[in-house]
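Hi support team,

I submitted a single chain yesterday and got back a structure, but I'm not sure I'm reading the token output correctly. Could someone confirm the output below corresponds to the sequence I sent? I've pasted both exactly as they appear in my results page.

Thanks,
R.
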Amino acid sequence: MQYYQVGKIVNTHGIKGEVKVLASTDFKESRFKPGAKLYLFQKQAQTPLEVTVKTHRRHKQFDMLTFVGLEDINLVEKYKQADLKITADQQEELAEGEYYYHQIIGLTAITTEGRELGKVKEIMTPGANDVWVIARPKQADLLLPAIADVIKEIRLADGQVLVEMMDGLE
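Hi R., thanks for writing in. Yes, this is the structure output for that exact sequence:
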């Protein structure tokens, strides 16, 4: 089965089993709604633990969750740093021109002049727009803002993203 990351448990909160989640999904309302199924992945565990969201609320930049049957700090303490994932069939349909991170990561970035820059290795979400991290051979990583002036075309079938290099990006 294929799983996709939607968040990471960064800490516990209080004594009633609430966890602080750093979300990595644009669909927080549906991913974390009460009754939603998630899968906890721990580094040392061989198989994921299926959990059901009991409560969800926002607090600062975090999503605060409790899980059915895990309403005690002693039960969730061991899940710090665990990844929260969903299965492939839980993914929502996207509108034309929208992509999941896992579709973008691994694409080869090519300039409009035909020069290969490297591969997208990570997507950061610092604020106003996403930033794509391009791993370049024998060079420092290149940070590209995911804006229309820079990202010109995404070619999933070819495994490429066409970018226009603006002054100051390299």
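A quick pointer for reading it: The radius of gyration is 19 Å. Let us know if anything else looks off.

Best,
Support desk
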